[in-house]
Design brief:
The chain is an alpha+beta fold. The chain has eight helices and 16 strands. Strand 6 and strand 7 form a beta hairpin. The radius of gyration is 21 Å and the shape is globular.
Length: 313
């Protein structure tokens, strides 16, 4: 059964204040759990094995990556501790990263609260408004989540748009502005680009436009790129890719975050992109990142049809 969550995560500098509020609200304190979350390498969503004394479960979830209240559709499986599911998954699909944390767990009715101390990352608070029965609905869950954001006095700048796993991954990842030459050389290492553009095409596209050339380094090696430019009142996310050996490290997602944040800083409120029907992974990624399909340009070969997408920033 899929469980609907509306949740937020935020940096926390006032855990004592939050504990006091929860006590005043007569929250049920379930205890403090030392948890080890092992994230596995999966194509879509997130899959983790949580090992704790209070919580012990295999969790798959697909969640929006936005800073405010976000929807998360969650599937839980509760194995016995002697089961070998973790070892089987490690051998079958591999470990992405491990997150260790100390978590205080509280409940008020259908709302769950976490006060977390995460190794290498610091202190956080989480609010999860949960609908296990399907009778509450997303609208009410959003209201509950926003109510406690206000009550805990959580500022917008403290809200986190991704997971602890993503935050740890970024410790290995550096994104910088780069050059057309770097993009062209990296394109040659990406098999989807059978006939990559030359420098002249990039220069022609980017000439006299505000543009952004992003290069991703993974542990010091160039792992991917993302290129886009401004057209009229929107930003066109034109080209991008990740070298195969560095995939499943969420590099494409981090490049997208960086690009969109820079575009917002520029005051641009819409970003556009297009992909081919055959690039299923790119289409799935765009939809999960909040893009919506606006148009389709059909070709004789349906796999080559172009799909146009927009996202409001």
């Amino acid at each position: 059964m899929v469980v609907l969550n509306i949740e937020i995560k935020a940096r926390c500098n006032n855990s004592e204040v939050i504990r006091k509020i929860l006590t005043q609200k007569k929250a049920l304190f379930k205890g403090t759990d030392n948890q080890k979350d092992t994230y596995f390498k999966v194509k879509n969503g997130r899959l983790k094995m949580r090992e704790g004394n209070i919580e012990y479960s295999l969790v798959y979830y697909d969640r929006e990556d936005i800073s405010g209240p976000k929807r998360s559709d969650v599937l839980y499986y509760h194995p016995r501790k002697e089961d070998l599911i973790k070892q089987q998954l490690q051998k079958a699909i591999g470990t992405l990263i491990v997150v260790n944390k100390k978590r205080e767990i509280y409940y008020i009715d259908n709302i769950k609260f976490h006060i977390d101390e995460v190794e290498e990352l610091g202190s956080f608070v989480e609010i999860e408004a949960i609908d296990k029965t399907g009778k509450i609905g997303a609208e009410k869950l959003y209201e509950q989540c926003k109510e406690y954001i206000s009550l805990f006095q959580i500022n917008n700048e403290d809200l986190i748009n991704n997971s602890y796993s993503d935050m740890l991954i970024t410790k290995n990842l550096q994104i910088v502005e780069g050059t057309v030459q770097q993009v062209v050389e990296t394109s040659k290492q990406i098999p989807e680009f059978k006939d990559p553009y030359e420098i002249s095409e990039y220069k022609k596209r980017l000439k006299d436009k505000w543009h952004l050339i992003l290069i991703a380094y993974w542990k010091g090696k160039i792992a991917g790129f993302k290129v886009g430019y401004q057209i009229d009142g929107y930003f066109y996310s034109w080209m991008g890719g990740v070298v195969p050996e560095f995939r499943k490290n969420h590099i494409a997602k981090q490049l997208a975050y960086y690009q969109q944040n820079r575009v917002k800083e520029k005051g641009i409120k819409k970003i556009k992109m297009k992909t081919r029907n055959k690039h299923k992974a790119m289409l799935q990624f765009a939809l999960s990142d909040g893009f919506y399909i606006t148009d389709l340009e059909k070709r004789d070969n349906p796999k080559e049809s172009r799909i146009f997408l927009d996202k409001e920033l």
